[in-house]
């Protein structure tokens, strides 16, 4: 009897785990000066309501390492998928011995797909250190595939 209960419990557990499609996606990659960086990321979409009417989507993509990518794009058309700077905020920070805080001076952020709770896209651009204007860098070949968390906000 114990063997049957164990096998039944194991079968239920294996079945509930699902396939790869149900795993939380956290891939965020980009390159700087030919060096590839890989990070764990998260993605939020805030559905902003005013007077019970949907006004805009606010997308936020951010990495979770000592090199922080932060992208924020606002879509009030509910259909936009490509944002050209300055239509979106794009920041890159390096936390270490000294803080380096870069902000975009050009760039592009594209949502390629938003399906089944996963958002995928591309990003890149030229960045300027806001504390040292002679310090610039270029983020290229940025891509993400991240589980999207959606929240409703009311104003």
Task: Give a verbal description of the structure.
The chain has 155 residues and is mainly beta. The protein has one domain (20-154). The protein has one helix at residues 2-17; strands spanning 26-32, 35-50, 53-63, 67-75, 82-84, 88-94, 100-104, 108-115, 118-129, 136-154. Strands 1, 2, 3, 4, 5, 6, 7, 8, 9 and 10 form a 10-stranded mixed β-sheet that branches. Strand 3 (53-63) and strand 4 form a beta hairpin. It starts with a helix and ends with a strand.
Q: Helical amount among residues, as a percent range?
A: 10-25%
The unreliable regions are: 1-22
Oligomer: single chain
Give the CA-based shape. globular
Radius of gyration: 20 Å
**SS elements, strand count:** 10
TL;DR?
With 155 residues, this protein is mainly beta. It is 10% helix and 63% strand.
What topology emerges from the helices and strands here?
Layout: H1 2-17, E1 26-32, E2 35-50, E3 53-63, E4 67-75, E5 82-84, E6 88-94, E7 100-104, E8 108-115, E9 118-129, E10 136-154
Parallel strand pairs: 2-10
Antiparallel strand pairs: 1-2, 1-10, 2-3, 3-4, 4-6, 5-8, 6-7, 7-9, 8-9, 9-10
């Amino acid at each position: 009897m114990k063997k049957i209960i164990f096998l039944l419990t194991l079968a239920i557990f294996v079945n509930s785990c699902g396939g790869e499609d149900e795993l939380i996606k956290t891939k965020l990659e980009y390159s700087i000066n030919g060096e590839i960086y890989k990070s764990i990321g998260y993605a939020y979409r805030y559905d902003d309501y005013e007077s019970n009417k949907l006004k805009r989507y606010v997308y936020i993509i951010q990495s979770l390492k000592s090199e922080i990518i932060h992208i924020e794009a606002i879509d009030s058309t509910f259909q936009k998928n490509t944002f050209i700077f300055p239509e979106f905020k794009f920041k890159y920070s390096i936390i270490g011995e000294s803080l380096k805080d870069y902000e975009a001076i050009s760039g592009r952020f594209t949502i390629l797909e938003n399906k089944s709770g996963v958002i995928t896209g591309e990003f890149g651009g030229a960045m300027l250190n806001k504390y040292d204007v002679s310090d610039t860098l270029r983020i290229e070949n940025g891509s993400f595939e991240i589980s999207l968390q959606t929240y409703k906000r009311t104003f």
